[in-house]
Amino acid sequence: MTCAEFLEVAEAFAISALDPEEQRAAEAHLAAASHQDCPQALARAGRGWEALARSLPPIRPSAQVWAVIESRIGSPRAAARRRSSWPLGLAAAAGLLVAALFYTRATQERGRAAALSAQLEDLRAQVSGQRQALALLQSPTSIAVPLAPQSGAAERASAILDLDHHAALVMASALRLQAGRDYELWVIRGGAKLPAGLLRASADGFAMVHIDEQLLRGGAPDALAVTLEPNGGSPQPTGAILLLGKVPKA
Amino acid sequence: MAYDGPVLEILFGALTSPDDDAELVRRVANGEAAALRTLYERLSPQILAVTLRVLRDQREAEEAVQDAFVEAWKRAGDFDRSRGSVVGWLVSIARSRAIDRLRSRSAVERLAVRAAAEPGETFAPPIELAERREERTRIQAALSQLTPAQREAIELAYFEGLTQREIALRAGEPLGTIKSRVRTALQKLLSLLGEGGAP
């Protein structure tokens, strides 16, 4: 790349908006020893993009954002807060006493906190799943496909597909946790059975999986199916079909 | 400049100069966490505004801000003042982290986020000093003088992380047209802001 060519792409290069090959060529050019005006052009472009950032009203982050940064960088201030400022001997004695008195309580509290934290994450995942399902349902081009239980299977599932946006998710319930086995979703198209993800159930038997958009780019699948497979899933189904839903053709 | 705690920085930090910011980055490179805190108090609201505009999700946007400041802590020694301002450097790191997150979203997640945060929604109460508000008004006035197509092209590139080729595909226009549009738009914006470049 020449300086003249770099000057043509400096604006896009500054925010990595070039194709990867062109981006690499521009990077290599910038590393050269002499230039017409390339570093200056890049700095000027940077100021232009920065203006776009400055056009937005600033928003104060919530209080815990800095606390997380501080803990991630291992700040001495964070460490100091964890340390006692008492004289060493007194601090050690007090620490031992506190430890002796409250060891059991602290262990219980930690366990409770961990359980609550896991529950919170579970709830967040469920809320996020419901939000995503709602968004899909609201899309005017989405369709719902129930997956019918086969041979008396107890499991239940439904899919929501928006083929125009290559978006789809499957929600399942009444799944049973089984050691060494996983529920696996299949996209069936033209006789091919394509693995589309594992349905890993929460404690209450609920699971949700997104279908990769690449699997939807070939048009509407013929059907979706769920089987029970060895832990981690299989490249091709080995178990009987538990749930099956035919996707209506547009 | 001595570190006097976050409250003073909140009150006065935004009025300090780019020279102070660069000095703070030098101190961050020397391992001074207090200097990073000062930079955070001063610049994080502007950085969160960008990550939120990219991700449209408060929690993820704040995580991208965290990633950016942790990265700044590790890479402060790489900051080159001749290549731009500290705020530009930090915004650039944060925007990259936000776009990484945006690209890792599934199609369903993208739809859900779009549905949850329609344009115009207020995410959180904005805070701003009068001086910054004036600057923002001036930039918005300059942006309003771009054509809608020019503005859309630079916003897709900057806030959605699309390459020029992806913008061309989305708009159904030749790549050359988009390249020229992005370049002209940015130069016009700079010119309107008195920074030189083609009008």
Largest interface between protein chains, with number of residues from each side: A-B, 59 and 75 residues
H-E string of chain A: HHHHHHEEEEEEHEE
Largest sheet descriptor of chain A: 8 strands, antiparallel
Q: What's the helical proportion of residues of chain B?
A: over 70%
How is the secondary structure organized here?
The complex is a heterodimer of chains A (250) and B (199).
Chain A lengths: L2 H12 L5 H11 L7 H17 L9 H10 L2 H7 L5 H51 L4 E7 L6 E7 L4 E7 L7 E9 L2 E8 L7 E4 L2 H4 L6 E8 L10 E6 L4
Antiparallel strand pairs in A: 1-2, 1-8, 2-3, 3-6, 4-5, 4-7, 7-8
Chain B lengths: L5 H7 L5 H12 L3 H23 L2 H18 L10 H19 L2 H10 L13 H15 L3 H12 L4 H8 L3 H18 L7
Helix pairs in contact in B: 2-3, 3-4, 3-5, 4-5, 8-10, 9-10
In short:
The complex is a heterodimer of chains A (250) and B (199). With 250 residues, chain A is an alpha+beta fold.
Walk me through this protein's architecture.
- The complex is a heterodimer of chains A (250) and B (199).
- With 250 residues, chain A is of the alpha+beta class.
- Chain A is 45% helix and 22% strand.
- Chain A has 7 helices and 8 strands.
- In chain A, β1 (143-149) and β2 form a beta hairpin.
- The relative contact order of chain A is 0.09.
- With 199 residues, chain B is mainly α.
- Chain B is 71% helix and 0% strand.
- In chain B, α4 (58-75) crosses α5 (86-104) and α9 packs across α10 (175-192).
- The relative contact order of chain B is 0.09.
- Residues 1-16 and 118-125 of chain B have low confidence and may be disordered.
- At the A-B interface, α1, α3, α4, α6 and β3 of A face α3, α4, α5, α6 and α7 of B.
